[in-house]
Structures are given as structure tokens and as C-alpha cells.
Write a structure and sequence with these properties.
Blueprint lengths: L1 H25 L5 H32 L5 H19 L1 H4 L4 E3 L2 E3 L6 H19 L6 H24 L5 H18 L2 E2 L4 E2 L1 H13 L4 E7 L3 H4 L3 H13 L5 E6 L2 E7 L4 H15 L4 E5 L8 H14 L4 E3 L2 H23 L7 E10 L4 E13 L3 E3 L1 H10 L3 H18 L5 E5 L2 H4 L4 H9 L9 E5 L5 H16 L3 E7 L6 H6 L4 E4 L1 H7 L3 H16 L3 E5 L4 H8 L5 E3 L7 E2 L3 H6 L3
Parallel strand pairs: 8-9, 11-13, 13-14, 14-15, 15-16, 16-17, 17-18
Antiparallel strand pairs: 1-2, 3-4, 5-7, 5-8, 6-7, 10-11, 10-18, 10-19, 11-12
Helix pairs in contact: 1-2, 2-3, 2-5, 6-7, 10-11, 13-14, 15-17, 20-21
This protein binds ligand C2E and calcium ion (CA) (2 copies).
Length: 584
């Protein structure tokens, strides 16, 4: 801020004095006093310009996060030397001077021109060596502006005028201030933004440079770091780690720094801990050393978010296993993407497993729940806890649902002995306006009574989506499809919602089965809940029945259906008929 202010003031001062200077130079020099005024105004112009350039170098250093005491001292000394040369030119006759009522100020003796050439060299070296944090747009614009400026200077030099000198410095400075700040540079924090980060990662990868990626998450950073002091402290922290590092702000509370591979992460951990004990902030730092598995910023961030969920230390350096694991996830992501692009409802990579469900009244397995698995080349069978969250995050879940639904419908049509198979839906897809249409298109290809089909949904907390979901489910239910409320007893159970959603069967989650076996009090609660639902005409299904105790307890709590490993693990859908037909 100080630099910017000083820069602007100096530009005004030098411009004003240059105009004044021109005016004076036009007058015949009559007296000693006039000569002094000419010297004075000329010196104000020249020295302002000299200091402007010095400040401008600092400004650029700050933008690219370059902090080096020796370089800073060098600039200060040069600025001072050139200013003093200018100031003393009246005596030394180096630079501008007046002799025999004639002013001499051009050629090699023009001090400012020499300083300007040095400035240009420093500027060029800085932006080239720090190119990682400067996006191409900036290079391009800065290049053009300097070219124009130098052209103007050149013509001025030939024509022996200096009317536009100030403009030539003003232009690049203004352009740079504008472009740096309009772009990816976050002025408040001294960090570059997400676009700059993405560019920087792409660039490093393209040039095959080895680097470390440091992910820093400080929850609610904006609320904590409201005062300047805290922000400055954090900025200071990044300066400590100075040697060739870059600070980026990924979002409100996530920062990223990139380092040369061999940086001192023990020092970093210590600094971080100091800072955090001072401000009592929680933080997560994840360090990913150079690797060939992450290729884009998205990969890096996905990996960090993944690790964040599991890591139990606030300062974590990724190991080889983590990376191998993540390379698997990337492969799965790619396959999911491919499945979504191919839109083949018979895709062979999507497997349908079924877990038979016991009808307690008939004491027979008549229905089943379909459960998805992926069979991927080189990775084997992948379970839903791994790929469902990935598919949901990357918007590929809907196509998977369509595939499994299509396969289930095909199976029901061919196997009339099955009473019903339920399919799981993700809450992320139901709100999609195309959802009803897509699903309806699939089921209408087959010919069987639609009460042979069940849809399993979980409760949603989002009140705004409630009406859409409710409406969609009602339309399916009108076709005869049975609606299951999945995982009841986990998360939020909103009684008002439950009574409004058209539900046929409530699936009590395994956690309720477990807790009802742990204490009398829990059993009392679960048992009474089951009474309430039973008396309001819902069918109750208990999930996760693993042994005789579970079975016995649930039978005493209005169980219409039982499902769990005690009876069968999920089996490939092709084996389901055999399982059902083998019953006595
Ligand atoms: P869910 O819908 O609650 O499915 C029941 C899960 O519990 C299944 O795990 C099943 O194998 C497991 N399970 C069954 N009996 C027992 C038992 O006695 N004890 C224990 N501990 N577990 C039992 P799975 O197949 O790994 O599926 C996990 C979750 O993935 C499912 O939970 C469901 O939320 C999701 N999922 C599976 N298939 C699909 C699908 O086709 N679409 C969507 N959207 N989600 C699916
Ligand atoms: Ca389910
Ligand atoms: Ca469940």
C-alpha cells in the first residue's frame, strides 16, 4: 500500500514539475535566480523519476513474492546513487547542467537514461525468473506496453524532446498495477489466486520440474484473520519460508504453497506450530512431494481432500502408499468418466449384486436389494464405498443408476418368481429435472408389474429440494413402484418429512439393530419407534442382521423383512434365482 501511494505521488510530482520545467525552459535565462529554479524543477522531475523506478522494482518484488535483503539493499543504494548524481550535476556537470545560459542534458550524461536501462534489466530478470507466478496475459501486456514506451523514448531521443518522458513511465506502471490486480493477484493477502495456481502447476508439469505441493487449510480463516495484524503475521510466515516459494489462495480457507523439492519442512512445521499456538487456530497441512501421479491442480486438491478426511495429524507428509492408493482412485475416476460418456445401459463394467431379503411372514426370501460393484481392468472388483462418493462428486452417479436399473428390470422381466428388487438412488440425482424422464424411459422398455420394483432413498436435509423429491417420488409411486426409506436412524430424521414423503417400507439401519442389543433403554426406544411406524401402516425392514440374537430381537419389534449377512451376503444377480428357487 505504501509503495503504491508513494509511486502515485511521485508520478504526480514529476509530471507537474515537468510541465513547469518546460514552461521555465522556454523563458530566456536572465538571472542567477532563474537558473536555480530551472535546476530545482528539473531535479524534482529527475529525482522523482529515479525514485519511482526504485519503488517500482520493490512493487514488482512484492507481487512475485520475492524477498531478499541483499537485492533490496542493492536497489536502495542504486536509487540513492543516481539521485545524488542528479542532485550534484550542477557542480559535477554529469547529467543536466546549465553553462553559458545553455542547458545540457542529453547523451550518455543523462543519468536517468542509465538508471532506466538498469531498471529494465532488473525488471526483465525478475519477471522471467519468477515466471511461474505470472500468467501469460501479464507477460503479453507488459511486453507490449514496454515496447510502446521504448519506441516513444527512442523518437524523443532522436527529436531531442522530452515532452512524453513521463508518459512513457506512467503507462507501463499503470498497466502493470492494473493488470496484476485485475488478474489473479489477491492484494489483501499477497497471494495469487486459483487460476494462477492451476497455470503454475500446468507449467511445472510441462517443464518436468520437480516441486513440492503444500496444502494449508485453516478452517474459518476469514473469520479469524479479520485484523491486519493476523494477515500480516501469516504473510510473514510465508516470507520466512522465502527461498523460492509461492503462496496461492485456493479458496477462503485453503492456501497452497509450492516449493523446490528439497525445502525444509521441519522448519515449516515449527513455524506453523508457533503461529497456530499464538492464534489458537486449527490447521491441516499436507505436503505432497514431487510425483508423477498428480497431473493437474484438480488431482492435487482431490488428493489433499481425501487425505484430510483420514489423516489424524495436522501436519502430514504423503507417503508412497497414499500415492499408489490415489493413482487407483484416479483410474476409477477415469473409468467412471468413460462409463458416463459411453452411456451404454448394458455396460459390462457395472455389476449388479443382490442381497436376498427374508419375508418374515412367509419365512421365505422373496425380495432383494440390488447393490452395485464395478469390475475394472487391472483393479478388480471395486466396492460402492469407494466409487459412489467419487461418482457423486463428479456428477457421474446418474448414469450408474440408469445402468443398474436397466439390468435389474431386465432380470425381473426374465425371472417372474422374484417378488421385488429394490434399487438405490442417490439424493444428488433425484433433484435433476431430467431424472423422472430418464428413469421412466428405462422402466417403460420392460413389461412387468411395477410393484416388482422398489426405489431406495435416503432422507435429505435440504428443505428447498424437498418438494421436488417428494413430487418425483409420488409420480413413481403412482406407477406402482414401492418406495423404501433407507438408513433410517442415521443422520437427520425429520418426522415431518417422513410423514410427507410417500414411503412404503422403512429400513431400520444396522446401527439401530446394534444399539437395541446393547441396552434396555435403547431397545425400548427402537422397539417403540417400530410400534409407531407399524401402527401407521409402514412396513419395517431391519438391515444388518448378522446372527440369531439380532434376528430374535428384531422379530420382536414388528419386523416384516430382515436383511443381513446371517442369511446371505450380496451375490451376483445371476445367482439370485438359484438362491430363491432352492428354498424349501
Ligand atoms: P446400503 O444401501 O445401506 O446397503 C447395505 C450395505 O450393507 C451393503 O453394503 C451391504 O453389503 C451391507 N450389509 C448387508 N448385510 C450386512 C450385515 O449383516 N452387516 C453389515 N455390517 N453390513 C451388511 P455395500 O454393498 O458395500 O453398499 C454400501 C452402500 O453403497 C449402500 O448402503 C448404498 O448406500 C451404496 N450403494 C450400493 N449400491 C448402490 C447403488 O446401486 N446406487 C447407489 N446410489 N448407492 C449404492
Ligand atoms: Ca440401500
Ligand atoms: Ca441401508
Amino acid at each position: 500500500m505504501f509503495i503504491k501511494l508513494a509511486l502515485c505521488n511521485l508520478i504526480y510530482a514529476s509530471t507537474f514539475n515537468m510541465i513547469f520545467n518546460h514552461y521555465i525552459e522556454k523563458l530566456p535565462i536572465a538571472s542567477h535566480k532563474d537558473i536555480m529554479i530551472t535546476y530545482l524543477t528539473h531535479n524534482i522531475v529527475q529525482i522523482s523519476l529515479i525514485i519511482e523506478l526504485g519503488l517500482f522494482i520493490f512493487y514488482i518484488y512484492d507481487l512475485v513474492n520475492y524477498h531478499n535483503k541483499i537485492s533490496n539493499a542493492f536497489i536502495i543504494v542504486l536509487t540513492a546513487v543516481f539521485s545524488i548524481l542528479e542532485l550534484t550535476s550542477i557542480k559535477t556537470h554529469v547529467g543536466f547542467y546549465i553553462n553559458d545560459e545553455k542547458a545540457y542534458q542529453y547523451g550518455i550524461t543523462n543519468i536517468f537514461l542509465v538508471w532506466y536501462i538498469i531498471f529494465l534489466s532488473i525488471f526483465t530478470i525478475t519477471i522471467i525468473s519468477k515466471n511461474r507466478v505470472i500468467i501469460n496475459k501479464i507477460y503479453f501486456t507488459v511486453g507490449i506496453t514496454f515496447f510502446i514506451s521504448i519506441l516513444i523514448m527512442f523518437f524523443q531521443y532522436i527529436k531531442n524532446i522530452e515532452t512524453f518522458t513521463n508518459f512513457t513511465f506512467l503507462l507501463p506502471i499503470m498497466v502493470i498495477i492494473f493488470i496484476f490486480h485485475s488478474n489473479s493477484y489477491n492484494t489483501n493477502f499477497g497471494a495469487l489466486d486459483r487460476t494462477a495456481l492451476a497455470n503454475s502447476i500446468n507449467d511445472l508439469k510441462k517443464k518436468n520440474k520437480s516441486f513440492a505441493f503444500v496444502y494449508i487449510k485453516i478452517p474459518n480463516f476469514n473469520e479469524i484473520a479479520t485484523d491486519n495484524k493476523t494477515t500480516q503475521d501469516y504473510k510473514q510466515f510465508t516470507k520466512y519460508m522465502q527461498y523460492r516459494n509461492y503462496l496461492f489462495r485456493y479458496n477462503d480457507d485453503t492456501f497452497v504453497m509450492t516449493f523446490d523439492n528439497d525445502f525444509d519442512y521441519e522448519l515449516m512445521e515449527k513455524l506453523f506450530n508457533d503461529l497456530h499456538s499464538k492464534y489458537q487456530m486449527s490447521h491441516n497441512v499436507i505436503i505432497i512431494l514431487n510425483n508423477n501421479i498428480c497431473n493437474t491442480l484438480v488431482d492435487y486438491i482431490d488428493l489433499c481432500e481425501d487425505i484430510e478426511k483420514q489423516a489424524n495429524s495436522s501436519f502430514y507428509i504423503l507417503n508412497n502408499d497414499d500415492l499408489i492408493n490415489f493413482s487407483k482412485i484416479l483410474k476409477i475416476k477415469k473409468e467412471l468418466e468413460d462409463i458416463a460418456n459411453q452411456k451404454n445401459f448394458n455396460d459390462e463394467r457395472v455389476l449388479v449384486y443382490c442381497q436376498p431379503i427374508l419375508d418374515t411372514k412367509l419365512n421365505k426370501f422373496t425380495t432383494a436389494e440390488s447393490l452395485m460393484r464395478l469390475k475394472l481392468n487391472g483393479l478388480g472388483i471395486i466396492y460402492p464405498d469407494v466409487f459412489i462418493p467419487l461418482a457423486e462428486k463428479n456428477n457421474n452417479i446418474h448414469i450408474l443408476t440408469c445402468i443398474i436399473l436397466n439390468k435389474v428390470c431386465k432380470f425381473i422381466e426374465k425371472n417372474p418368481e422374484i417378488t421385488r428388487i429394490s434399487v438405490n438412488f442417490s439424493m444428488y440425482e433425484i433433484t435433476n429435472p431430467k431424472f423422472y424422464h430418464d428413469i421412466y424411459n428405462i422402466i417403460s422398455k420392460y413389461h412387468f408389474d411395477l410393484n416388482k420394483l422398489g426405489f431406495e432413498i435416503t432422507e435429505t436435509v435440504e428443505a428447498k429440494d424437498f418438494d421436488i423429491i417428494n413430487d418425483t417420488l409420488q409420480r413413481f409411486r403412482n406407477l406402482g413402484i414401492k418406495i423404501y426409506l433407507d438408513d433410517f436412524g442415521t443422520g437427520y430424521s425429520n418426522i415431518e418429512h417422513i410423514t410427507k414423503i410417500p414411503i412404503d417400507i422403512i429400513k431400520f439401519d444396522r446401527s439401530l439393530v446394534i444399539s437395541s442389543g446393547q441396552s434396555e433403554k435403547s431397545k425400548y426406544i427402537v422397539s417403540n419407534m417400530s410400534d409407531i411406524f407399524y401402527n401407521t401402516n409402514y412396513n419395517i425392514l431391519y438391515e444388518g442382521i448378522e446372527d440369531n440374537n439380532d434376528e430374535h430381537r428384531c422379530m420382536g419389534m414388528n419386523a416384516e423383512y430382515l436383511q443381513g449377512y446371517k442369511y446371505s451376503k450380496p451375490i451376483p444377480i445371476e445367482e439370485l434365482s438359484k438362491f430363491i428357487n432352492q428354498q424349501p
